[in-house]
Amino acid sequence: MLSLIGGIAENDREIIRESYKLSAQDNETLLIDWLTELLYLVEDRHALFTSVRVEMVENCVLHAAVTAQTSKNFTKHIKAVTYHDLAIKKIPDGYEVTIVFDV
Question: What does the DSSP 8-state code read for residue 24?
Answer without folding.
Answer: -
